[in-house]
Amino acid sequence: MRCCCDENIKRSITLLLEQEGHDVVRVQDDLGLSTPDAEIISFCNETDRVLLTNDDDFFAFDTHPGI
Q1: How far apart are alpha carbons 67 and 60 in whole angstroms?
Q2: Residue 60 to residue 20: CA distance in whole angstroms
Q3: Closest to 60 measured CA to CA, from 32, 31, 36
Q4: Which of 59, 17, 20 has its CA nearest to residue 41?
Q5: What is the pTM of this model?
Q6: pLDDT confidence of 56, banded at 50, 70, 90?
């Protein structure tokens, strides 16, 4: 699975997903801290990644590969 982990996802979770063979990027590493939600969703759409987050604001977006 191709994942994008939001800032609120612990590094230990991203490491575990990587160990299991998933393609994981972190928002703070690839987009920078405090990236607006709309830019994160665009990034996920462009790179076909599922967003892992604890932020329910993302449910307001109509198009995304998954949250």
Answers
A1: 11
A2: 30
A3: 36
A4: 59
A5: 0.84
A6: confident
